[in-house]
Amino acid sequence: MATRKTDLPALEPDPLEPRPDEVERYVEALQGLTKANAELARRSAWSPREAYDTLNRMFRLGVAPKPVLEGPQDGILVTPTLPAPVTLALRQLTFAWMPWLGKRFDPERQAGDNLLTASARVPARVLWPGCRPEPAGGGRLAAFRFATYVGPGKLDPDRETLKIDYDSESNPRPLIRDILDELVQIVPGAYLGKVLLRRGGGDDWRLIGYFALQPPAMARLAEAPVAAAAEAVTAAA
What we know:
Helix content is 31%, strand content 32%. The protein is α+β, with helices and mostly antiparallel strands.
C-alpha cells in the first residue's frame, strides 16, 4: 500500500538512538511513496542522518542503483566516521571550504571522475604533485578517475552495491588509490555511499565516512523553497 506523505514525520527514527525497526519502517515508507511524491522521498531520505547506526541501517536497506548512473551527480558529504576529534575538525573544515562537488559517471565505459571547485587545483597539486585536474565546464575541475562495477559490499557482503574503485595507475598515492566507495539507491534520485579506506595494502577495509549523491535537477528542486523564502524576506524588507 502506498505511503501518505503525512505519515512520514511520525515514522522518523530517533536521530541519536534509532531502533532497527524504526529505521526499517522509515525507509520502507519512503520507498512506498507514490510517484507524485517522489521529490519528497528524495529530500526526506537524508533526514535521519545524525547517528552512524541509522546511516548503516539505511545503507543496508538500499539496492544497487537502477538505472545505472549517468552524467554528473551532485555530492553531499554526510559525515566522516573517524575518531571524534578528527571528525569535528573535518566538519569545521568542510563547513568553511568544501572543494568536492560530486561525481560524473560514464556507464558505457564503466568509469567516471570527481568534480571539484576551481579552488581545489593548488591544494591537489601540493598534496599530490602528479595530480593534474582537468577543466570540466562551469568553472569546475575533474580529477581522481574511477572504475565502476556492481558487487557485494566489503562490510556488507550480503548487499549488492555499486563499487567506485580508485585503484588504478591514473590516480596518485598516497591515499587516493586505497579508497573504495560503495553506493546504494535509497529511492530513485537519492543515493547513499560509504567511503572505505584500505589498511595495510590487503583486503582490510575501514569505514571512514558517508556521502550522498543526487541528480543536479533534483538538487535545484530541493533548494527552490529555500530560494522562494529568501525572495519573500527580501521583498518584505
